[in-house]
Design a protein that fits this description.
The complex is a heterotrimer.
Chain A (H helix, E strand, L loop, with lengths): L1 H10 L3 H28 L1 H4 L5 E6 L7 E2 L2 H6 L4 E9 L13 E4 L3 H4 L3 E2 L2 H9 L3 E5 H7 L6 E6 L4 E13 L9 E4 H11 L6 E2 L1 E6 L5 H11 L7 E5 H11 L1 H32 L1 H10 L3 H37 L10 H28 L2 H6 L3
Parallel strand pairs in A: 4-9, 6-8
Antiparallel strand pairs in A: 1-11, 1-12, 2-10, 3-4, 3-11, 5-8, 6-9, 7-8
Helix pairs in contact in A: 1-13, 2-11, 2-13, 2-14, 11-14, 13-14
Chain B lengths: L4 H10 L1 H33 L6 E6 L12 H8 L14 E12 L6 E9 L1 H6 L4 E5 L8 E5 H6 L8 E4 L2 E10 L8 E5 H7 L7 E5 L6 H10 L5 E5 H7 L2 H36 L1 H10 L3 H28 L5 E5 L6 E5 L4 H27 L3 H6 L2
Parallel strand pairs in B: 3-8, 5-7
Antiparallel strand pairs in B: 1-9, 1-10, 2-3, 2-9, 4-7, 5-8, 6-7, 11-12
Chain C lengths: L5 E12 L2 E13 L4 E5 L6 H9 L6 E6 L2 E2 L5 H11 E4 L11 H6 L9 H14 L15 H13 L5 E5 L7 H16 L4 E5 L3 H6 L2 E6 L2 E2 L3
Parallel strand pairs in C: 3-8, 3-9, 6-7, 7-8
Antiparallel strand pairs in C: 1-2, 1-4, 4-5, 9-10
Helix pairs in contact in C: 4-5, 5-6
Classes of the chains: A alpha+beta, B alpha+beta, C alpha/beta.
């Protein structure tokens, strides 16, 4: 089609300018995609949450414990299928920057997390070894842990050097599952505490409560909290998702800032693109006038310009989108704080939408100007 | 001899739209750059300024934060009697045994609660921190369920004004005063009587012991004695270092994220500058030829276009800096990853940041404009003149 | 008669175009005396523009001697040539080649920026030459506020302000209407006759050619006998 050919040729008239614009577009689209992925990563815990799990913790704060004997009472509440104990261990592996979550959990942990796939033989080995630990696939790959390895962890909350033996490696059912973590036996932690610091023993960080039906969540939560109102340790029970979102909320200003910055990227690239289109259009005023004199209407001109803008943005955007996944993978290798760092399909769509919007916005003014150019003035203009 | 500055500056003015768009892109990058630096400076200011140089904090060995730590009454008693500890006017050791707990409080306008530090302390604790001053109301009375609220908390959280009550640990606590701790971390805390809080939270051990050194050099002997004493599972740190260590992860995170973003953005903005300068050169080929014919050297032409590019950077830089300086009126609070508690800090604009920002803006202009300027300088006179 | 101002001996120049060497000037030997108004004439492609460029020092010959005022400019390095041009050559172009962002005053001042004159001294000279071309009242106007003829007069002022040895004009009336062309031509003549300025002018304008005292004919890069 004549129009397409003209668009293509015009776009590459100033090759250097177009290449630079493409580079700028690609980088901006890439940055936008990465920022969105960072925000997604922040919400990873909430995304992986299940509607059939509740978290019961001390109403005062997460840093306060619940008595062990609450477990049987929670278990007895109607709608509860199983109860798992979990204490955040927060130890250091070799150096503080090698951060990954470690939890002391009761033996029935994996029953409540069917999305973690464990080979039954390994599960059995873990149950039998009180010093055993289970390591997620992502964590194992990052540090090269294998079954049988001894994992020395320096405790911070629970002082001393603790040694665990890797008894199994679990996989996530899909990429949203967090496998950059390690779990070991709560009983082992408690036993050790009974000997070294008895006052701190029999204290649970939080209970993970499995329920039979998603719709019962609110009722069961109220039921559990009702058991312990006005006691020494009041509880707060919420869905796992609400619990995870609570974490996000703690850094909500950082997350908001990152979101704002991602929009700033779009503005930057809009400025660059608008500049390029304005320059190109200005230089071709006499050409547009000529086309008009020949009988091509204002709509044709507008479409020509918008088409060029779309073409360049589509090309630059495509490069940026293509580069997003490999860059995310490389970023993940370098910076290990995020347990999950995966580029979602929505992000890719958002990048495309971003490129399209910029294309249209950048072309509006030049397109309307060109459409309105008066033949006589235009021909007189020196490009 | 250089090409007159009027030529350089007016050329930017003539092509106003292009200049505005390019400088706008640069300004946005500069804004992000400056804001990140300001945020980190604000964070550092808060943490460096938290505590006194000659105060020492004793915690459990291996704990990184007071929350994770525990000091038994016995251990506290032993530490208290060390000769390196300064004595108050009345002969009693300048020591405060403190408890740290976290409670959930809702920020004004937030859906979900954040964790806030409650520090059980004493009148001595107040004395040990001269940077903390009572701003309104009065100090909590020993034994009473009373609290005083740090400035950042009073401003940012619900239910923390004088006379209002907070409910935790099974009872109501009345806010009887607010204190101002400047930009330090103490401003993001709530203080109460340590013994009352210990009882309410059913604690038998303190979180930490804070003491003043009789003289600064005695820190090493104190540390050696504490490490060597078999009764004690404690370690000591200078208070300021202790608090600044607690923010290392957050500070690193902010800096790394911020600088990565800025680097990526700056590439985009520099490409914009390159496109603009390239077009500027292309449009002025005849002028360049004329200047060279008149006797201006290649270096003068290079200089003129570099100056134009850097001026563009400067304009963008000043605009971005001006916008960033408005951030000083905003405050920022987030959960410190290490202490798990909310920490408020400001965006701090220092002279060093202004200098770095302007240098960054000029550098962007320079790098973006370099290749086009080089191209301009390398033109042959005859070719350039023929272009008309 | 003193030595000629411009002594050219066996000058040759060729260009490389698309991989091929195209000779433009071959073995040119010629003298131009101080105070001459010379107009190289010849058909398109005869090399007259190239000859002009070489004498003006904005291009370098491949071989030969090109002495202006005793200095063989063919041997000068690029930087030295730039300095030489600033002191010795005034340019008048077909399209005036004024800086659009500078006022008439600033455009005329431009060559003086390459000298060591103080601002006051520069002001004196600029005002003098602008008055001489009759544009003293338009000093602060920008080129786009002046007519073609006025712009060319500003260009002439710029060409003489540093008191150069030679003035080089490439189609000075090419873009002007009859009236303005006559004005500009008159001005160049006065510069030559009254002030003794040596002018070398390439032109298609028959009137302009008639003003020349010395004619030089070129054809296919070679001088035709006078």
């Amino acid at each position: 089609m004549f129009l397409l050919k003209l668009v293509y040729k015009n776009a590459f008239r100033h090759r250097l300018r177009t290449l630079l614009t493409l580079a700028g577009l690609a980088i901006a689209v890439l940055a936008f995609g990465l920022l969105r992925t960072v925000v997604d990563a922040w919400y990873a815990g909430a995304a992986a949450a299940s509607g059939t799990r509740l978290i019961t913790r001390n109403a005062i704060s997460l840093a306060t414990f619940l008595p062990l004997h609450y477990e049987s009472r929670i278990r007895a509440v109607e709608g509860v299928t199983r109860v798992v104990r979990s204490n955040w261990f927060g130890g250091i592996y070799q150096e503080p920057k090698n951060f990954f979550p470690q939890f002391a959990v009761s033996d029935n942990y994996f029953e409540l997390y069917p999305e973690f796939i464990v080979p039954p033989a390994q599960l059995g080995a873990w149950v039998r070894d009180r010093k055993g630990c289970m390591v997620g696939r992502s964590l194992a790959e990052h540090y090269g842990f294998k079954v049988g390895d001894v994992l020395p962890i320096r405790g911070t909350i629970y002082p001393g050097t603790w040694e665990f033996v890797v008894r199994g490696i679990f996989d996530g059912a899909d990429s949203t599952r967090i496998t950059r973590q390690m779990v070991f036996h709560w009983d082992y932690l408690n036993e050790t505490l009974r000997k070294t610091a008895p006052r701190r023993a029999d204290a649970v960080g939080l209970f993970i409560v499995g329920i039979d039906n998603i719709d019962n969540a609110a009722a069961v939560a109220t039921g559990i909290d009702g058991l312990f109102t006005n006691s020494l340790a009041e509880t707060l029970t919420e869905t796992e998702q609400a619990f995870q979102l609570g974490f996000v909320a703690m850094s909500d200003q950082i997350v908001a800032a990152i979101r704002i910055v991602s929009y700033v990227v779009i503005l930057i690239i809009l400025a660059v693109m608008a500049n390029t289109m304005a320059m190109s259009a200005r230089e071709r005023t006499s050409e547009y006038a000529t086309l008009k004199a020949l009988g091509y209407g204002p709509l044709f001109l507008a479409v020509l310009i918008v088409g060029e803008s779309l073409f360049i943005c589509a090309l630059g955007g495509a490069i940026g989108i293509a580069a997003t996944v490999p860059t995310a993978v490389a970023f993940r290798k370098m910076v290990s704080i995020f347990p999950v760092f995966a580029v979602s399909a929505q992000t890719l769509w958002a990048q495309a939408a971003c490129a399209a919007t910029v294309a249209l916005a950048a072309a509006i003014v030049p397109a309307t100007r060109a459409a309105r150019v008066r033949i006589v003035e235009g021909l007189r203009a020196i490009g | 001899m250089a090409v007159p500055l009027a030529y350089v500056a007016r050329n930017l003015w003539t092509r106003r739209l292009t200049t505005v768009l390019t400088a706008g892109g640069l300004a946005l990058v500069v804004f992000v750059f400056a804001t990140v630096l300001m945020l980190d400076a604000g964070l550092k200011q808060t943490l460096v300024s938290t505590g006194e140089y000659d105060n020492v904090v004793a915690i459990r060995k291996g704990s990184e934060t007071e929350i994770q730590s525990g000091v038994t009454r016995l251990q506290a008693a032993v530490i208290e009697t060390h000769p390196a500890v300064a004595l108050a006017a009345d002969g009693k050791p300048l020591v405060s045994k403190e408890l740290i707990v976290l409670i959930s409080l809702r920020k004004i306008g937030a859906q979900k609660p954040s964790n806030v530090i409650i520090r059980g302390t004493s009148a001595t604790g107040f004395e040990l921190r001269p940077q903390v001053k009572l701003a309104a109301g009065r100090l909590f009375a020993p034994g009473a369920a009373e609290i005083i609220v740090g400035g950042a908390i009073a401003r940012g959280f619900e239910g923390t004004r004088i006379g209002e009550k907070l409910h935790f640990a099974g009872r109501d606590w009345v806010a009887v005063g607010t204190y101002d701790a400047g930009a330090s971390g103490f401003d993001s805390e709530i203080w109460g009587d340590v013994e009352t809080l210990m009882q309410a939270f059913r604690r038998t051990a303190f979180s930490s012991v804070v003491l003043r050194l009789a003289s600064s050099e005695r820190f090493e002997s104190l540390r050696a004695d504490i490490d060597g004493d078999p009764r004690l599972t404690n370690e000591v740190k200078r208070e300021q270092l202790f608090y600044s260590d607690q923010s290392r992860a957050l500070s690193t995170f902010i800096t790394v994220l911020g600088m990565t973003l800025t680097t990526v953005f700056s590439i985009g903005a520099m490409l914009g500058a390159m496109i603009t300068m390239h077009a500027a050169v292309a449009n002025r080929v005849t002028e360049i030829g004329t200047l060279r014919a008149l006797g201006f050297r290649r270096a003068a032409v290079l200089g003129a276009f570099l100056a134009e590019a850097m001026l563009l950077g400067l304009v963008g830089g000043l605009a971005g800096l001006a916008a960033a300086s408005l951030m000083q009126f905003a405050s920022f609070s987030t959960t410190n990853f290490q202490t798990f508690a909310d920490l408020a800090f400001r965006f701090a604009l220092t002279a060093a940041i202004v200098a770095k920002t302007i240098a960054f803006a000029l550098a962007m202009g320079l790098i973006g404009g370099f290749l086009p300027a080089l191209r301009a300088a390398r033109l042959e006179i005859v070719d350039a003149l023929r272009a008309s | 008669m003193s030595a000629p101002l411009v002594e050219i001996r066996h000058l040759a120049k060729s260009y490389v175009r698309g991989g091929q060497i195209v000779p433009v000037l071959a073995d040119i030997t010629l003298d131009i005396n101080a105070g001459d108004l010379t107009a190289p004439m010849g058909p398109s492609g005869s090399g007259k523009a190239t000859l002009l460029n070489l004498i003006a020092g904005i291009d370098k010959p491949d071989s030969g001697v090109l002495r202006v005022g005793g200095v063989d400019i063919a041997t000068l390095g690029e930087a030295e040539l730039a300095d030489w041009r600033a002191a010795n050559v005034g340019f008048v172009f077909q399209l005036y080649n004024l800086m659009p962002v500078l006022t008439a005053y600033e455009n005329v001042e431009l060559p003086l920026m390459l000298t060591g004159l103080s601002r006051a001294e520069r002001r004196e000279r600029v005002e003098l030459v602008l008055a001489a071309v009759g544009l003293a009242d338009r000093m602060d106007h920008y080129p786009n506020e002046l007519s073609g003829g006025q712009q060319q007069r500003v260009a002439i002022a710029r060409a003489v302000v540093a008191d150069p040895r030679i003035i080089v004009a490439d189609e000075p009336t090419g873009d002007l209407d009859r009236h303005a062309a006559a004005e500009v031509l008159g001005m160049l003549r006065r510069l030559n006759e009254d002030l003794g300025k040596t002018i070398i002018m390439v032109t298609h304008d028959a009137n302009a050619a008639r003003a020349a005292k010395a004619m030089v004919h070129l054809e296919k890069g070679e001088l035709l006998p006078a």
